[in-house]
Amino acid sequence: MTLALFDLDNTLLAGDSDHAWGEFLVEENLVDAEEYQRANDRFYQEYLDGELDIMRYLSFALQPLARHDMNSLLRWRDRFMATRIRPMLQRRATELLDYHREQQHTLVIITATNSFVTEPVAELLGVEHLIATEPELVNGRFTGGVAGVPSFQYGKVERLNDWLQSTGETLKGAWFYSDSHNDLPLLEKVDHPVAVDPDPHLERVARENGWSVMSLRD
Fold this sequence. Notes:
The protein has helices at about 10, 15-25, 35-50, 55-60, 65, 70-85, 90-100, 115-125, 155-165, 185, 200-210, and strands at about 5, 105-115, 130-140, 140-145, 175-180, 190-195, 210-215.
């Protein structure tokens, strides 16, 4: 079955769920506000610039998960979904997902943001398959570490290849929608790469290669 792959942040969502989660933690006084906000913004800029050290970032971003029990985290995540994620939903993104469903394509969200944050987002969007960075979980608590390869840059390709092997799916005729030049390794591997509200670097590459360029912003 044909795959329709979607980046999440600034693609299906009109914003970045990972960065927004950090802002939410600051607003709820669950972290040292000034220090955490400064680091969160710095890492996000490094991501935009294509200079992010993913393991260094994850050692920062996953620590709040390790400091709290699961019940508290789930309660806070529910509030985060209601106050920060729902306002990021886009009508055109929903229509795009529906289009691929009508074509009987297999929908997959593939994102660098960790699965604790993104699982309920995928569920809200009605997308069954999620490939995300996996926070390490031991005895019902997060450790602050990463389980396996982060789903970032070439890691997205590696994680997708593992998923393809486990499911028997292939990339023949596959689509991939993304806003970020960080996703070029995967965009270059699919038959139908689509730049969605792209950053300047990705837009330049897309135009040079004759890829589709579109907007999902309402």
